[in-house]
Specification:
Helix 6 (190-200) packs parallel to helix 7 (222-239) and helix 7 packs parallel to helix 12. The two termini are 24 Å apart. The chain is of the alpha/beta class and 394 residues long. The strands form 2 sheets. Strands 9-8-7-5-4-3-1-10-11-12 form a 10-stranded mixed β-sheet. Helix content is 37%, strand content 16%. The model is unreliable at 1-5 and 262-272 (pLDDT under 50). This is XyeB family radical SAM/SPASM peptide maturase. It comes from Yersinia bercovieri. Residues 9-260 form the Radical SAM core domain.
Length: 394
């Protein structure tokens, strides 16, 4: 068993809080609704005030158990803006006014943007909520997978919401520019999507997510995915603009340069001092939210926020296994030159019903191609091969 509870200092505790378990659009790749798991459908549509109160008490108990530097609450869904505004305000009040000792609390929200209006922006302004928009590229690419429940385009509504957030930031109403979360599309051109975000939408901070595919998803296309990532990477390197932050690129480049592994929540669960878990609208705590589509025992509820403490979560079989998987490599990865950089890839992408998480990622080829291209860029920039090899080997 991985003994995490003996470490009393936690740098970052992140709660993926499912404040709405329904959505106003129907993305065909959605791991919440369209990957065969019914937890969201069987959960309350919105989180109750009682469960918010119990979550606050849970966090306060956590701060007594551990020295937590930062508490981050990510409002998630479904679509979180389906929550009534007055309930959202009450929730933020409860979360931000509670006594967490020396711990700092920050609020973030992931939305498709179609429901944003000035009243929502006023709430984001009041409670210092960082907002990120989900969009997959220009209209003809975004609308391949991100349509509303009646099969209509969501692109215009999403961009309208993004523009409102950008204008609010320029007016000084928001503390940070809105970011973008994009699911990589192997049938699209990565360069076109990158340029759309930077040149057309004027967004300089975004992340590209590898799809939540596993071995039961027969349409995974690792070769085309590798091409997509390399096309986007080439554009980012060509821009050579330190103001443009693409997390997937930045974190792997840093590792190739020998920096201490920063990691990405949901991708590298062994990151020291950083823990994340999911709290549903029903108040039940589970591990990494993307693992729900496995319908595996690892995503079984650990307990209700009213009944357990953070130490119970950390020492639970589900969380212990989650961390253990992140610290180990699938048998197929042994001896791979990229094993210390890739770390086996996203846990979700390693899953098969028969062998659970002991398969190499379905996007193994994609990541090997991407890391090779990233290394080639570094060499072309004059980085010594010995430095890259040392980083790969550490």
């Amino acid at each position: 068993m991985v003994n995490i509870s003996s470490k009393k200092s936690i740098q970052h505790l992140e709660i993926i809080l499912k404040i709405s378990e329904r959505c106003n659009i129907n993305c065909d790749y959605c791991y919440v609704f369209n990957k065969g798991n019914s937890i969201a459908d069987n959960s309350p549509a919105r989180i109750s005030n009682k469960n918010i109160e119990q979550l606050v008490y849970f966090l306060q108990r956590a701060c007594l158990e551990y020295d937590i530097a930062t508490l981050q609450i990510d409002f998630h869904g479904g679509e979180p803006l389906l929550m009534k505004k007055e309930n959202f305000a009450s929730m933020c009040d409860q979360l931000t006014t509670a006594d967490y000792g020396r711990s700092n609390i920050s609020l973030a929200l992931q939305t498709n943007g179609t429901l944003i209006d000035d009243e929502w922006i006023s709430l984001f302004e009041q409670y210092l909520v960082y907002v990120s928009i989900s969009i997959d590229g220009p209209k003809h690419i975004n609308d391949r997978h991100r349509l509303d429940t009646k099969g209509r385009s969501t692109y215009e509504g999403t961009v309208r919401g993004l523009r409102m957030l950008q204008n609010a930031y320029k007016q000084g109403r928001l503390q940070a520019e809105p970011g973008i979360l994009c699911v990589a599309n192997p049938q699209a051109n990565g360069a076109e999507i990158y340029r759309h975000f930077v040149d057309d939408l004027g967004v300089y901070g975004f992340d590209i997510l590898i799809p939540d595919d596993a071995y039961n998803d027969t349409y995974a296309d690792p070769v085309s995915m590798g091409r997509f990532l390399n096309e986007a990477l080439d554009e980012w390197m060509k821009d050579d603009n330190p103001k443009i932050f693409v997390r997937l690129f930045q974190t792997h480049i840093a590792t190739l340069l020998g920096a201490k592994k920063v990691g990405v929540l949901g991708h590298t669960p062994e990151v020291t001092g950083t823990y994340a878990c999911t709290v549903g609208s029903d108040g039940l705590i589970r591990v990494d939210d993307t693992l729900r589509s496995t319908s595996d025992r690892i995503f079984n509820a650990i307990g209700h926020v009213s009944e357990i403490n953070l130490s119970d979560v950390i020492n639970s079989p589900q969380f212990q296994e989650y961390v253990s998987i992140g610290k180990s490599l699938p048998t197929e990865c042994t001896g791979c030159i990229w094993e210390n950089v890739c770390a086996g890839g996203r846990i979700m992408n390693r899953f098969s019903p028969e062998e659970r998480f002991n398969r190499k990622s379905v996007y193994c080829y994609s990541m090997r191609s991407f890391l090779s291209r990233a290394s080639a860029h570094l060499l072309n920039m004059g980085i010594k091969e010995e430095r890259i090899m040392a980083a790969i080997s550490q």
